[in-house]
């Protein structure tokens, strides 16, 4: 028997089509019920419950009870990071799903990736912050610079509050559609929340699509222009 982490076990959990559909649905960052996840997977509630038990036991989900309902969300940013990476590999290999829902162009433009902004506008945000030297890469470590901290504070993001969380402040996430990085971590989440607070952007509650208003798109382009 080989020593080390058993990646085959985790891969088998993710690799089942029904479970993969459930995990993808949870990339929106929303907690969903068993019946909602059963609909996403195209299986019965009983079958969905069995799949969810396996994912929970494998450490990929965080179950919570509220009233009569049990909700499930992804266990951590690490799980979301792995799923987004797998989506990139699948897209690069030509393995794309055909399903009803938002148009592919809308998903590619702007979408939620576990509560941070992904798609074309997500990578533009990352590229702009890098170009303005608000973010810096040291090897594989992404850090917020002094100018970046000032920029975030001016944008009314509470960095002290973010730093008090266990979640990494800044993290690269490989965007499956753009094949480039977008900003994850607590700072990535804070930027998306701020866009929503300013009414620049709104999430589609039935999908992962993020829609920017005309004014929001204009303000975004001013603030995060890329030469």
Describe the overall structure.
The protein has 227 residues and is an alpha+beta fold. 30% of the residues are buried. The strands form 5 sheets. It has a 3-stranded antiparallel sheet with strand order 1-3-2. A two-stranded antiparallel sheet has the order 4-5. A two-stranded antiparallel sheet has the order 6-7. The radius of gyration is 18 Å and the shape is globular. It is built from 11 helices and 11 strands. The protein has helices at 7-15, 17-25, 34-41, 45-57, 77-92, 104-109, 120-131, 146-154, 159-163, 185-197, 214-223; strands at 32-33, 61-66, 69-74, 111-113, 116-118, 135-138, 141-144, 171-174, 181-184, 201-203, 210-212. Helix 3 crosses helix 4.
Topology:
Elements lengths: L6 H9 L1 H9 L6 E2 H8 L3 H13 L3 E6 L2 E6 L2 H16 L11 H6 L1 E3 L2 E3 L1 H12 L3 E4 L2 E4 L1 H9 L4 H5 L7 E4 L6 E4 H13 L3 E3 L6 E3 L1 H10 L4
Antiparallel strand pairs: 1-3, 2-3, 4-5, 6-7, 8-9, 10-11
Helix pairs in contact: 2-3, 3-4
């Amino acid at each position: 028997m080989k020593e080390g982490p058993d990646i085959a076990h985790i891969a088998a959990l993710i690799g089942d089509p029904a479970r993969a559909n459930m995990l993808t649905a949870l990339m929106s960052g929303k907690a969903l019920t068993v019946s909602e996840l059963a609909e996403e997977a195209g299986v019965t509630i009983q079958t969905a419950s069995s799949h969810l038990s396996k994912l929970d036991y494998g450490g990929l989900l965080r179950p919570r009870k509220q009233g009569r309902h049990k909700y499930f969300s992804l266990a951590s940013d690490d799980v979301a990071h792995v799923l987004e990476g797998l989506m990139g590999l699948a897209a690069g290999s030509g393995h794309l799903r055909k399903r009803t829902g938002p148009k592919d162009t809308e998903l590619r433009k702007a979408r939620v990736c576990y509560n941070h902004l992904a798609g074309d506008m997500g990578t533009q945000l990352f590229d702009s912050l890098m170009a303005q030297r608000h973010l810096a890469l040291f090897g594989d470590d992404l850090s917020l610079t002094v100018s970046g901290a000032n920029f975030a504070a001016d944008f009314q993001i509470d960095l002290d509050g973010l730093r008090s969380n266990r979640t990494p402040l800044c993290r690269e996430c490989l965007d499956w559609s753009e094949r480039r990085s977008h900003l994850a971590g607590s700072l990535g989440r804070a930027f998306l929340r701020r866009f929503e607070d300013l009414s620049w952007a709104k999430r589609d509650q039935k999908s992962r699509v993020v829609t920017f208003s005309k004014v929001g798109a204009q303000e975004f382009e001013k603030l995060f222009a890329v030469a």
